[in-house]
């Protein structure tokens, strides 16, 4: 049974690799190269982080409105906060998926670049291309580390949000709301830290995009 599962996993990986290669090949035929795809994916990842920033801020605002709720239906305020939490969770997943796509095309681009350097016969041109590749890889590594660092801060924030939302769901009354106001201060600080980390990541993305478009 284990051998069958292993074989299926390998088969799926080969199919995925083949699909990616076919995609890149088809795009190159219409003049869109891996470098172009990489820049587009970095831009998309940056935009997804900007969207996530807004969504986390919106979720925080709705939770604050719920905790400061004064009169009216608590359930309606809770539902709005829950909707914003769900949207923040979706936005976080989108960020992760976008970063994965950046890493995928980067690997293909750098492998191709390295292979093509070996085909350059003139030593001076070969060295210049190698230097440019090394420089681009360093800039890329700095950017993607910043992306992943910002990404890593989303999960703890979402967990804290979920804990608070579930607790409130099970005990939706003024006394319960008052009891978690202390924890909310910590959540505010965590979201502020997340947004700052995303700003640093976005700045790194802009710098990398600029270097690739020169």
Describe the fold and architecture.
With 214 residues, this protein is mainly α. The protein has two domains: 1-31; 33-212. 89% of the residues lie in helices and 0% in strands. It has seven helices and no strands. The chain has helices at residues 2-29, 34-67, 74-117, 123-152, 154-170, 174-179, 181-212. The termini are far apart. 24% of the residues are buried. Mean pLDDT is 87; it is low at 1-16.
Write a concise keyword list for the protein shown above.
2 domains, disordered N terminus, mainly alpha
Secondary structure: elements and pairs:
Layout: H1 2-29, H2 34-67, H3 74-117, H4 123-152, H5 154-170, H6 174-179, H7 181-212
Helix pairs in contact: 2-3, 2-7, 3-4, 3-5, 4-7, 5-7
Order of helices and strands: HHHHHHH
Q: Can you give the helix content as a percent range?
A: over 70%
Quickly count the helices: 7
Measure the end-to-end span: 53 Å
Question: Roughly what is the average pLDDT, rounded to an integer?
Answer: 87
> Beta-strand percentage?
under 5%
Net shape? elongated
Structural class, by secondary structure, is mainly alpha
Number of strands: 0
Radius of gyration: 23 Å
Instruction: Count the domains.
Output: 2
Largest sheet: none
Low-confidence segments: 1-16
InterPro entries: DUF2959, S2_sf_CoV
Organism: Shewanella avicenniae
Pfam families: DUF2959
Protein name: DUF2959 domain-containing protein
Write a brief structural summary.
The protein is mainly α and 214 residues long.
